[in-house]
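Q: My labmate handed me this sequence with no annotations at all. I'd like to see what the chain might look like in three dimensions before we decide whether it's worth expressing. Could you predict it?
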Amino acid sequence: MTQILQRRSPALTFRAGSLARQLIEKEGLQAAQIDMIPGAAGGPKGIGLTGLDQAIFSNFLPQAKQRRFLIGSSVGAWRFAGITAQGGKLGPEKLAELYIHLPFQKGMKTLEIDKISREMLAGILTDQTQKLVTHPDYHLTIIAAKAAHLFQSDQPLALYSSLLSIVGANAISRHHLNKFMQRVICQPEQFPQFKIQDDAFKTHYLNYTADNVADWLMASGSIPGVTPAVKNIANAPAGAYRDGGLIDYHIDLPFESKGIVLYPHFSDSIIPGWFDKMFKSRKANAQNQARTLLISPSADYLKSLPLGRLPDRKDFVLKGLEPKQRVQLWRQSVAESQRLGDEFLELVEKQQLPAHMQSL
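A: Here is what I predict for the chain of 360 residues:
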């Protein structure tokens, strides 16, 4: 009897901007081309990329050591903080393990969630904070949002009134969010700085140190109504700082890359801001992403996961999903992500990416 072997469906999807596509078709994908790596907000979806992150940071990028910008908001910044502090293999492992075992429960107070989140961050950084700040190869750039007017308050009436106004203003135009918040780009000061072209949002460029980087990471992931805004950050302008994903959810910024922006992402599309999720017309600026190679799990891969998707923040309170069961399912999802990394490395080694790329 003839045995028919079926090859698994591809685990990854590749979408390339116009200039990235031209470069890869001409030269293949080389580590030396990569000068910027964005990391999106998205909560525990980020740990669904564990295997891909390990392949990129432990196997691929070390082939050409050079200084690179890692630009993250919320969990994207936390992913990169783990990598810069603990290394390309251990960093993603630590983040995933700590996230999987978070004891979040329905009805928790914001201060309880804040305490648990700070303990998780301490577990990611351990005693390696100085290494993060002075890393010779990776320039961690943290994106946060500086709240304005009533949006600075964590009092429920003021906060939710602000959020209603923000939703309404954003429905008219994303640019109207600048009445409620301003972008913060925070990075170590002893290296060349990451900057962007001016846009509708006032952008503050600040520098972090080993003494305040944890507060900036907390601010970058401070979801309104879930955790309090971060205030009184040492050596920072007075104010209330919130989740960077509110403005820069999937980091649709005008990257001044001279090579390729390598973007490991949990989605095959780029949504500019968190409040744009409900608008299908709010898509990435093609000019911003001209040098981007977006790498994401394929639809077939996602269907093969225990939950039929990546881990999600809603799983903590999902009806019928017990904590022990959630831990088991998330562990399986993280283990499966090794397929993502293996497939990426195989395609790069064989230089087969051009045959798999779609337009971004």
